[in-house]
Amino acid sequence: MNKFKYSIILLVIISSLVITACATGDLETPNMEITVSDYEAPSELETKEPIGDQSRFLIKADPELMEPVTVLYEAFFNGKSPIFVQSDPDLLVEPPGEYENFYDELPAVFLTDGAMYPKNVSEELEAFIQFAVSTDGQQTLIKAGLLPESIELTDQAGNTVSLNLPIRDVLSAYGPVTAMIYSVDAEDRLVSASYLGARDPLGSSVMEKMDSRFPGIQGDESFSQSEFNIEEAAMLEPDLIIGNARSGWLDTVAALDIPVFLFDAETPKALKEAVLLTGQIFGPHSTAQAEAWVRYYESIVGTIEEKMAEIPIEDRVKVLFTGTEPLRVASGDMFQSYIIESAGGISASSELEGYWNNINLEQVVIWNPDVIIVPPYGGASVEAITESQEWQILDAVKDGKVYRMPKLVAPWDTPAPDAVLGIIWMAQQLYPERIDLDCSTEAEFFYNTFFDYEIMDEELAKICSIN
Amino acid sequence: MKSLQKSAASIKEKHSIQKAYLFLILIGLPLGLLILSLTLGRYQIGPIDVLKVILSPIFPSIAEGIPDIAKQLIFHIRLPRILAALLIGASYGATGTAFQAIFKNPLVDSNILGVTSGAGFGAALALLFLGDPWLVQVSAFVFGLVAVFLSFFGSRLYRTSPLLILTLMGILVGSFFGSLTSLLKYAADPLDSLPAITFWLLGSLTGITWQNLMPLIILTIFGLIYLWTIRWRLNILSLGDAEASALGVDPTRMKLGIILFSTLMTAVAVSVSGVIGWVGLVIPHAGRLIVGPEHKRLLPVSISFGAAFLMIIDDLARTLLPGEIPLGVLTGLIGVPILVLLMRRSRTGW
């Protein structure tokens, strides 16, 4: 019975689609708002004709943005001019607006100071958009004098770095920034990169699906915080080298005469700055992506802060973040402590300084944390704590409140873009009754928006379940 | 004649009183420190409460009203750790004394045959590939023995001056395993296994449990009993092989036994605590300063002092800061100045 109903509904939908298709076909008649007559209906474009002899779609653009769009269009379609219309466009180009709600509608792509909203997605339009945000598109705009030829940026080590744009080939020797490069949609510029969390089965399988060039461009063996194979770097001839400000190889790399941009993002403020800098390096599209990420991060933290205002300090949950071994814990200087605080918790080990600190169990008893979190790397496990006889004296262990921080690729406790999910997940663990952010929903949105990756249900189940 | 006999008897009596005092000090020092150490810790438990808790297995009613957590801390966290410090200190003191005797060299301890380097490599290997603390301990123990085995049988390849060759082989094997450890450190993830390896190599008793402690208790007690029973023979061995043979001791077999037991003791100690240097070197010198080079007395003193020294060091390591201070760092920082002072003041022979 149901099947019958559905097939009727399906039939209605199909027929209505056919009718609309025919109707749009009728648009060919020149009495519409089209200003140039050689416009052809999208339905006929599906036969792949050589690009360049005809205009492909209608554009409605803000007057100020007509010039960059025209330049790009002419470059892409061999000198053909675009058709601008007043209404019913296939592509809308506007100055970026105020995005109050993230989940509504993010523009697909950005160029100079504008945002492009594709309304009718066709193959041709897609190809044009790809070109508009590519390095070639950026080059076209630079040639037309619409984008600067070079910029000066101050990196997080305080050095002023002068960059000749566009940056086509980049070598990233710092895993968190590699993740940032993916999140600002510039991964096609990587010639070799150090990755964060891409070695375990989940991380590597997701990376392979996310980027067809992976693991070919994985350069962890040659480039990392501690290592830098200078000959290999010289061979790759990158336009820019990205590294951590505390890398051991900074002096030697100067010999290459390639600009080096350094990052150091151990606080939320520095993380936001790092993402924005990454965006600026790669151009307007990436900048807009980076700004979108910062807005998302701030909206999440703001939402949690608002909820937490009702809870007095003494009622907040005390969290201990342990390291690769149960008796090694994160210090107050580390990003993990900031994640705990952003999620409305109190970091038990915030009095410690420096990096991971070795401590004894007696100290843990003094702190008496309500919740213990283990990281998703380095063989750290919940069982190492819950199955240990000695740890049973802790309330958190007795109550079963020992959790493992999730990860997809980059661990959620590291200063990578994914850290925002770490905050959401943590808040959900600490205050399940008060925080109505949902890890699965947010993770799906996050990876879709910033990594162009449609997360699979089984991956979601793996990362968002409590352990 | 009679008066001479009388005075001999009085000297003997005086001697035995002295001996009794010394014995009391030697037993009392580590025991007192053991109890004192139990009262120390970041978590505040009053000394009287600690005593009540210690006595509670015998008099269950005595510890009423003391929170469970304090009892747990004392029996499951502090006691195994302090016992480990006591046993490892005693073990290093004893094996250091024995090795200095058989090598006739005041600058050696039981690490001279490469046991520490081997154990360090074994631990690094397990930390890099396995991660389980128990397997780390087993791997460290096994590779410690492997290193000494290689030194010992490597030295058999040469027939000349076996002691010198043995020392040389020990240094070579030690360097070899040291290089292997460096290779592992180079390959280790700087964010993850590298700090674990580095911390292990600096020595710590942080994660000690009763389970880790068992092999240490068994092997150390057996080894100490063995060294105790043969301690007067150390005097003979330190005279040289020819003299020892003339006095009816088979020096080769004797040395083999001492090296075997000392190696087992050192390997198990290193496997539990990581690398803690200087104790085996400094403690016998301190002992000589007080009771002279006679091994019948020197060995007990070294055992007692070693135990006391490491307990004090470990108390500092776990109480000074919220974070742990590596033991190897403290023994070096405190042990080296002590050794320099002793070498300046010492008028006694080796």
Count the domains of chain A.
Answer: 3
Straight-line N-to-C gap of chain B: 36 Å
Mean pLDDT of chain A: 84
What Rg of chain A is obtained from the alpha carbons, in whole angstroms? 26 Å
Helix content of chain A: 25-40%
The secondary-structure class of chain B comes to mainly alpha
Total separate domains of chain B? 1
Mean pLDDT across all residues of chain B, rounded? 86
Total DSSP E strands of chain A: 17
- Briefly note the CATH topology name of the largest domain in chain A: Rossmann fold
Roughly how many Å apart are the termini of chain A? Answer: 42 Å
Oligomer category:
heterodimer
Name of the top-level CATH class of chain B: Mainly Alpha
Strand order of the largest sheet of chain A: 2-1-3-5-4
Low-confidence stretches of chain B: none
CATH superfamily of chain B: ABC transporter involved in vitamin B12 uptake, BtuC
Biggest interface, chains and residues, is:
A-B, 30 and 31 residues
Radius of gyration of chain B, Cα only, in angstroms? 22 Å
Describe what this molecule looks like in 3D:
The complex is a heterodimer of chains A (467) and B (350). With 467 residues, chain A is of the alpha/beta class. Chain A has three domains: 31-143, D-Maltodextrin-Binding Protein, domain 2, CATH 3.40.190; 150-273, Rossmann fold (3-Layer(aba) Sandwich), CATH 3.40.50.1980; 310-464, Nitrogenase molybdenum iron protein domain (Rossmann fold), CATH 3.40.50.1980. Chain A is 39% helix and 13% strand. Chain A contains 17 helices and 17 strands. Chain A has helices spanning 2-25, 66-76, 123-133, 135-143, 175-183, 201-210, 230-236, 250-253, 268-282, 284-308, 335-342, 361-367, 383-386, 395-398, 419-430, 439-451, 457-464; strands at residues 58-61, 83-84, 91-94, 109-111, 114-118, 150-154, 160-164, 170-172, 190-193, 240-244, 260-263, 318-321, 328-329, 346-347, 357-358, 371-374, 402-404. In chain A, strands 2-1-3-5-4 form a five-stranded mixed β-sheet. A four-stranded parallel β-sheet of chain A has the order 9-8-10-11, covered by helices on one side. The radius of gyration of chain A is 26 Å and the shape is globular. The two termini of chain A are 42 Å apart. By secondary structure, chain B is mainly alpha-helical. Chain B has a single domain, classed as ABC transporter involved in vitamin B12 uptake, BtuC (Orthogonal Bundle), CATH 1.10.3470. In chain B, 77% of the residues lie in helices and 0% in strands. Chain B has 14 helices and no strands. The longest helix of chain B is centred in the first third of the chain and has 38 residues, at 2-39.
